[in-house]
Amino acid sequence: MIRIRSLLLAFVLSSSIFSSAQADIQIPQIGTAGASALSIEKELQFGAAYMRIIRAGSRMTNDPVLSEYVDELGHKLVANAEQVRTPFTFFMVTNDEINAAAFLGGHVMIHTGLFLNASNESELASVLAHEIAHVTQRHIARSIENQAANQNLTIAGMVGALLLGLANPAAGIAVFQSTVAANMQNSINYTRSNEFEADRIGIRTLANAGYDPTGMSDFFGKLADKYRFASKPPQMLVTHPLPDTRVAEARARANQMGQKYVPPSLNYQFAKSRIIVRHGTMDAKASLSHFERALERKEFVLKDAALYGKALALFANERYSEAKTIISDLDSRHPNNLFLLDTLSDIDLSTDNTSQAIKRLERANKRFPLNQVVVLNLAVAYQSAKQYEQAESLLVEFLHEHPDNVLAWSQRRTIEQRLGKTAQSHVSRAEYLALHSDYQRAIDELYSAFSRSESTLERARIEARIEQFKLAEQKLQEF
Q: Buried-most residue among 65, 129, 157, 385 (CB within 10 A)?
């Protein structure tokens, strides 16, 4: 963390990043007031740095099943959004507070607490649609430009302060107090018109993607009522205030579109149950009691989702046979569901049924090639069966397509150690560290790999990667 904080401090203090001419990028005029200060190219650079810092300093929910779910949901919305100019990345942070936030370059963070307070997928999707609109309308770039001018800061200094605050709020406050940005808070300050515009465009995206447009007004209204007199509202209401006029306008706009019946989403309810058991505040016994009580009292949206939650809780209590009975029954009624496939794999590997897990996952790998849930589970199963070559081959192929997957790099390193591939294991460790902005340690790992490599070609590749990491660290410090 000392290393990360020093890099982040460089963000705040540097003023040189925008001394060179900006790239000439042609974009539509609507919603692009910040283009003169932040080009799309610079947004992507800042966004990439943001993701590496977030990995290093926050409680990212590295759960492949949940990651797959939010990625699919988010990109379904993006496919129906307007003026999309950047790729989008959706990721989750383990935090019970209700919040979601967008940053430069199309990066959207979702707190697990958002799932626990949204009643259905349309409500959750409405929050994501709102954040997507902040990105597509470049509200973030415009806000940063305006705040930098008001506070007499460079754009780089403003972005650096925001990165630090978003990645580590406590540290962020300290930096703000030591600069002229002391009154900026740990957030991007959207204007009232930004919020209304994000609502208006977000509702349209929501409806175009097939969700109930009233999901936004329902969720906003519920939050406004719940926290109307709260002395400490959730962060989402601090950064996205909900005056009555905003809630009323969202409701009126949704009513114009007409309410749409959307059947309850099984995967959304599965995700909610998974968060309660594996990423919530309850221990194993409490989560089991929670779902047993819900099933007994019929307090659920979908019974199968409550059963899934109970099975996860039984697994957490090491009652594997009971858990498998429930999951197997659910799997027979919902075949090829990744939530169920993942849990079946967990149970099989915990009960020494490795060969059964491998057969099931190999079939799934043919159906869902290079899917992170399947690949990561299958790599673990191969490793459990001491089939290290198969595991390595699988991960090499997967990482070629998904080089930012930290779990895959961690698994690959472990497998290479088992295979006695010491040099390559150092390389894999270096890639993992670089994804967390820890470039100096990553470079040290590459030097270790270089000294242990006997291949001239491999040494050349390692040398090239060292130079790439040095340049990446230099750019991060220049920010």
A: 129
Going by C-beta distance under 8 Å and a sequence separation of 6 or more, which residues neighbour residue 374?
Answer: 338, 341, 361, 364, 365, 368
CA distance from start to end of the chain: 18
Bridge partners for 100 per DSSP = 110
Compute φ and ψ for 21, nearest 5 degrees.
-65, 140
Contacts for 64 with CB less than 8 Å, ≥ 6 apart: 342, 372, 373, 376, 377, 407
The SS3 assignment for 107 reads strand
Structure tokens of 325? Answer: 């009975």
CB 176 within 8 A of CB 184: yes
Of the listed 123, 199, 342, 445, which one is catalytic?
199
pLDDT digits (tens, 9 = 90+) for 161-211: 666 665 454 444 333 333 323 333 334 556 778 888 999 999 999 999 999
Query: Quick check: 211 and 262 in contact, CB under 8 A?
Result: yes
Encoded amino acid at 385, one letter? A
Residue 475 has pLDDT above 60, yes or no: yes
Active site residue 404: no
Instruction: Give the whole-angstrom CA distance, residue 300 versus residue 306.
Output: 7
Q: Is residue 227 helix, strand or coil?
A: coil
Q: Which of 63, 131, 304, 445 is catalytic?
A: 131
Contacts of 180 (CB under 8 A, 6+ apart): 151, 152, 153
Strands 100-103 and 107-111 come out as antiparallel
Q: Which two tokens stand for residue 194?
A: 């930004």
Residues contacting residue 72 through CB under 8 Å, at least 6 positions apart: none
Q: Decide: helix, strand or coil at residue 54.
A: helix
**In the predicted model, what is the mean pLDDT of residues 442-470?**
97
Structure tokens at 427: 């390389």
239 has pLDDT over 50: yes
Q: Could you tell me if 345 and 377 are in contact, meaning their C-beta atoms sit under 8 angstroms apart?
A: yes
130 annotated to bind ligand: yes
134 annotated among ligand-binding-site residues: yes
State the Cα–Cα distance between residues 275 and 262, nearest whole angstrom: 23
Q: Residue 373: which residues within 8 A CB-CB, separation 6 or more?
A: 64, 65, 68, 338, 341, 342
Q: Pick from 161, 7, 2, 89: which is nearest to 475 by CA?
A: 7
CB neighbour list of residue 451: distance below 8 Å, 6 or more residues apart = none
Domains and CATH numbers, the chain: 2-257 (no CATH), 266-478 (1.25.40.10)
Whether 72 is a known active-site residue: answer: no
Higher pLDDT among residues 115 and 162, named by residue: 115
Q: 334 among the known binding-site residues?
A: no
The residue ranges of DSSP E strands in 74-231, in sequence order, are: 89-93, 100-103, 107-111
